[in-house]
Amino acid sequence: MTTTTQIRDLVVRHTQWTGSPDELTDDLSLIERQVIDSLDLLTLISALEEEFDLEIPDVDLVPDNFSSIGQIAAYVNSRQGTA
Amino acid sequence: MSGLVHQLLEAAAHADPEQTAVVDGGRELRYGELERRSNQLAHLLRDLGVKTGDRVGLYLEKSLDSLVGIYGILKAGGAYVPFDPQAPTARLGYIARNADIRCLVTGAEKATEWNGVKEAGAPLQALVVLNAVQALEAPAGTQVVAPEALVAYADSPPQVQLSDSELAYILYTSGSTGEPKGVMLSHRNALAFVDWAAEEFEVRASDRVSSHAPLHFDLSVFDLFAAARGGATTVLVPGAASVFPQELARFIEANAITVWYSVPSILSLLVLRGGLRGSEFPRLRTILFAGEVFPEKYLFRLMDLLPHVRFCNLYGPTETNVCTWYEVPRDPAERPETTPIGKAIMDVQVFTVDDDGGVVDDGEVGELCVVGPTVMQGYWGDAERTMQRLVPAPPEFAGNGPMYRTGDLCKRGPTGDFVFLGRRDAQIKSRGYRIELGEIESALYAHPSVVECAVAAIPDELVTNRIKAYVVVRDETDEADLVGFCQQSLPKYMVPELFDFRAELPKSSTGKIARTALEQSQGDR
User: Is some CB atom of chain A closer than 8 A to the CB atom of B262?
Assistant: First the structure.
């Protein structure tokens, strides 16, 4: 399973995404489409930390890292690369 | 002060037409422009047949245009009915049918949903689009009016005779019987709160007031109208700032917000994850919070980080707007362990009664009741429910209209401040939203596979409560099926987060679901 697929699953599970997983494309804006709110973000962060064995510091909780599945994957990959 | 809500705008536009009324990201609208555009919309709505007292829906993402919509509807003599832009169309269709909404002020971003709302039973005839750049297809039997039509109308106020007892807006909240109920608020109801709040919190032209709450949530009444009364600027909080605590911190700083008003949960996140060090927000002078309990450990930490800021807890169900308030002392030694909801606002009376309606003594628990000018006109189209909740006041509080029974259990302490203790019924709060557990149960029971269900609130520090559903199903229906099903009729904040599948639900001797036993028992699958 690719990182992107894992992340898509987590987003579906933790945000009450209403559409089908296929519609949740890598570049769909999770903020503009209001897929996640502030509390979903925290749940999602915990899930990502568990799934990828990461610790995500507060300073990384910015739109550039978490506005789409593609951005989350890039962030997770970059963190894993440096871990 | 003026007697109608939109006269606040007229006065602000007259005093300083160049003053910025509202900021939405990089876009701004000045009071003069807002006044002229909403006048044009009001003329257009009258032309479409909107008459005094008609309900007009407002269905678009919060933006500069939303304010034009609200004031345009009010100036036309209508009552605005704000739709939750994220709500399922089935729910919006119900609301439109219930309030007999023929005319909708809307945005192009909602064009894909119009058919769904219409098909769910909305008696729509006209859709007035405030922001379209291209022609949009009208659902069958309706006409779409493009924004270009506005310029043909006069930009001076229409001549509409209106009394302050006319409805200004109807806000739909969760209803225990399975359908949302429309709380009717008049111009006088709104202004009784707005006049008090603008004075008490000294809202002035130099202020920049945040607008965090959605427009279908009554906190927005302060954000828009108290700001207009003071000639202040309302700054809309963008989506990213609502999601990312550090974005929120940057937003407050960069926009020089002076007065912030929201539910506590977003402020708790700001404390937890906002990266505050204690030297932030020099311009911020007041934080108002309402809608749910602010956990003291986060509230006090935020107060310690922002010692220059005044913190006030505002309380009141939608039916009474804000009816009590409490200013949290800056001195940590003076802060009570449990933050009270405080004392009544100006011209309002609050007291607690026992089951027989007798006023109880200080220090004893009773149901909080409210009398005064902020108390609603009733529930739209529901005389029976109105009569249950709006009842004659006891003799010692007679003469100021009916009394609203809040359903909140409170007691008055030695300082005269009321403290909230809990609910009399199955209504809960989550993320500041008011939720009837019965409405969620009704939604689940509508699923053909659900044999039995009970929905419970699981206390949570950040969001007050999380929603858990205990269900018995007749087949292999799983959580994803039920979540998807609920999403078709319930807004996101009402969809259960946790599901517990059981072979059966425990019963009391009278055959009712034994909730306490249920919550203490273990699941089956």
Answer: no
